[in-house]
TrEMBL record:
Signal peptide: none
Name the record gives this protein: Acyl-CoA synthetase
Organism (species): Neptunitalea chrysea
SUPFAM superfamilies per UniProt: Acetyl-CoA synthetase-like (SSF56801)
GO MF term (any one): propionate-CoA ligase activity
Classification via Pfam families: ACAS_N, AMP-binding, AMP-binding_C
Gene3D superfamilies: 3.30.300.30, N-terminal domain of ligase-like (3.40.50.12780)
Length: 630
């Protein structure tokens, strides 16, 4: 198939294109309206269609005679466990858990938070919610109780599903105690907490709202999937924005199922019943789309990996998993490859494994540097495909579409737009710029199916953040350019969001924590270059005039505060105490200037700067403390 023709067809007549793709799914009612407007005058797909995601991921395959096919391969080097679940097993596990949730009074439209490590029960919980129309919100385990509490107050779950504990390389993560702490902090109080006990040696205090996952499932009746409108929210997934408050991205059901099914075939080029492995976490969008829903809708075997690319036990883990489970297509973040490369620069460990099963290696989550791309290409010997997308899109926006036609790669570019995405580069005035001119990456409306529907409880933020900046376009928040050959290059965020080890974090949120330290008068948090994690946060703090604490004490306390409030995943370890911050004459902190200095990028001194001499002071502080690229 020819990429250009296929892509052009999707842009020229989106309704015909996506109607055809939607017919690849089994609907209770096939939609008669393909594209229409919702009550906010925003595009929606398949509004009168009816279907159920849990049915498509499980029951459909059982009905088609594939009940004995493996659906989930759970591989946990941290607990030394390997276990497989067939589609029949899934039907029983998910059906009974859904029955238990129903018995607890959960109904279509209720919300539930899932805060679990990478265990099969996290997937069962998501699919059980989907089965009965409960909107789930999975929260990544690396977030601290305070962050969990913010999400509890925003989506007001009737219940929380959690596990007693998880393992992070060399330490136990007390999931259940974190949930208790979050409930203490939140205003909204969920009715129950369903706890999957793991017996990893952690102390798990009992609370009156606790229910035991295993006994609930053992005694529950099976619940069948219910027919849901295509526009029914399947989930809310919180992601960092440019304020201290995360945004709850709402995903629909029918558009998402259509897009995922399409992407498995045409982007990832994976056949039904092959093994697909996305080495991410269910707490991120990659986990939602390509550990859970995408592979299962497509009747693949999906790998749930509870470990890290290194240290569990070493840098050969990925290669062992690929070869042991015959993975056909794999997806990870460039950071994971950099971590492996650091431990095994010559790729010697790769030679111990037969990777002949692997067809494609996909990379995403952050910018893929050329050195990382070349290293994988050299050592794995299969096409390495950098692709670009975000929580909001839910599935790739730029990619070499492996199931259509592999086009030649230009390092640094995730190649061309995926079907349905009319990607343009705009200037400040919202006009499309010439080839190779950098600007804002935007997508002409309508977006294809599967992308965000809105922000939970905050339609104004949705409109103002994504639609208002450029009329007729969705604004991605990324900068980039398109070269003369049409290759799209993403150069990075144009806002205060940073990307640390493939994790999207808000510097505004970290600033709130730093500013709350009693000795801090004012502060700025920026992302600076890091060889392993791509970016790491750096806090610059100016102390109050009456501060009596030593610098080292303030630094230590700030690191601890950010870890306690946001979570270990924030990775804030660098705190610089400075005399003053660069500001405009009206007192606005010049964060962009700070970022450019740290990353040794060219910059022009803003005419509004209060005192240009500060640039040399900051340069000196960064050089002395080896911050960023110096
Ligand atoms: N629960 C609790 N804590 C967690 C966690 C979880 N699920 N995930 C991460 N953390 C903690 C880590 O233990 C670490 O704590 P520490 O500062 O005490 O060491 C901290 O959060 C930062 O974690 P991470 O960014 O993962 O760094 P790391 O040093 O532990 O590992 C890599 C480095 C490169 C191996 C790791 O970041 C990695 O595998 N990256 C791939 C990223 C990825 O898959 N992203 C998904 C998007 S596609
Ligand atoms: P998230 O919403 O957590 O998936 O993060 C999305 C952001 O990560 C995007 O807006 C980009 O800034 C960045 N990103 C993801 N994939 C890529 C990629 N392949 N190349 C460059 N940046 C990427």
């Amino acid at each position: 198939m020819n990429y250009k023709n296929f892509y052009n067809r999707s842009i020229a007549n989106p309704e015909a294109f996506w109607k055809e793709q939607a017919s690849e799914l089994t609907w209770y009612d096939f939609p008669s309206t393909i594209l229409s407007k919702d009550s906010y005058n925003y595009d929606q797909w398949f509004s009168d269609g009816k279907l159920n995601m849990s049915y498509l991921c499980i029951d459909k395959h059982v009905q088609d005679g594939y009940g004995d096919q493996v659906a989930i391969i759970y591989d946990s080097p941290v607990t030394n466990t390997k276990k497989k679940y067939t589609y029949n097993d899934m039907k029983s596990e998910v059906g009974r858990l859904a029955g238990a949730l129903k018995k607890l009074g959960l109904e279509k439209g209720d919300t539930a938070i899932i805060y679990m490590p990478m265990i099969p029960q996290a997937l069962f919980s998501m699919l059980a919610c989907a089965r009965i129309g409960v909107v789930h919100s999975v929260v990544f385990g690396g977030f601290a109780p305070h962050e969990l509490a913010i999400r509890i107050d925003d989506c007001k779950p009737k219940i929380i599903l959690t596990a007693s504990s998880g393992i992070e390389v060399d330490r136990i993560i007390p999931y259940k105690p974190y949930v208790d702490k979050a409930i203490e902090l939140s205003k909204h109080k969920p009715e129950n907490v369903v706890v999957y006990k793991r017996h990893l040696g952690a102390d798990v205090p009992d609370k009156e709202y606790d229910l035991d996952y295993k006994s609930l499932v053992r005694t529950a009746d099976m619940a069948s999937p219910i027919s849901l409108p295509s526009t029914h929210p399947l989930y809310i997934l919180y992601t960092s924005g440019t304020t201290g408050k995360p945004k709850g991205i709402i995903r629909d059901t029918g558009g998402y199922a259509t897009a995922l099914k399409f992407s498995m075939k045409y982007i990832y080029g994976v056949e039904q019943d092959e093994v697909f492995w996305a080495a991410s976490d269910v707490g991120w969008v990659v986990g939602h789309s390509y550990i859970v829903y995408g592979p299962l809708v497509n009747r693949n075997m999906t790998v749930i990996f509870e470990g890290k690319p290194i240290r569990t036990p070493d840098a050969s883990t990925f290669w062992r998993v690929i070869s042991e489970h015959s993975v056909s297509v794999m997806f990870t973040a460039p950071t994971a490859i950099r971590a492996i490369k650091k431990e095994d620069p010559q790729g010697s460990l790769i030679k111990n494994y037969d990777l002949s099963c692997l067809r494609y290696q996909f990379l995403a989550g952050e910018r893929c540097d050329v050195a990382t791309l070349s290293w994988v290409q050299q050592h794995i010997g299969v096409p390495v495909i950098d692709h670009w997308w975000q929580t909001e899109s839910g599935w790739p926006m730029l990619s070499n579409m492996a199931g259509v036609e592999l086009v030649p790669v230009k390092p640094g570019s995730a190649t061309f737009p995926v079907c349905g995405y009319d990607i343009q580069i705009l200037n400040d005035e919202g006009q499309e710029v010439d080839a190779s001119t950098e600007g804002y990456v935007a997508v002409k409306l309508p977006l294809p199916p599967g992308t965000l529907r809105n922000i939970w409880g905050n339609p104004d933020r949705f409109r103002d953040g994504y639609l208002a900046p450029f009329k007729g376009y969705y604004f991605s928040g990324d900068g980039g350019y398109i070269d003369e050959d049409g290759y799209v290059f993403i150069t990075g965020r144009v806002d205060d969001i940073i990307n640390v080890a493939g994790h999207r974090l808000s510097t505004a949120e970290m600033e709130e924590v730093v500013a709350a330290h009693p000795s801090v008068a004012e502060c700025a948090v920026i992302g600076v270059h890091d060889d392993l994690k791509g970016q790491i946060p750096l806090a610059l703090a100016v102390t109050k005039s009456d501060n009596m604490l030593a610098e080292s004490v303030i630094q230590e306390e700030i690191v601890k505060d950010v870890r306690a409030h946001i979570g270990a995943v924030a990775s804030l370890k660098l705190v610089l105490i400075v005399e003053r911050l660069p500001k405009t004459r009206s007192g606005k902190i010049l964060r962009k200037l700070l970022r450019s200095i740290a990353d040794d990028k060219e910059f022009s001194i803003p005419s509004t700067i209060d005192d240009p001499n500060i640039i040399n002071e900051i340069k000196l502080a960064f050089t002395t403390h080896k911050v960023g690229i110096n």
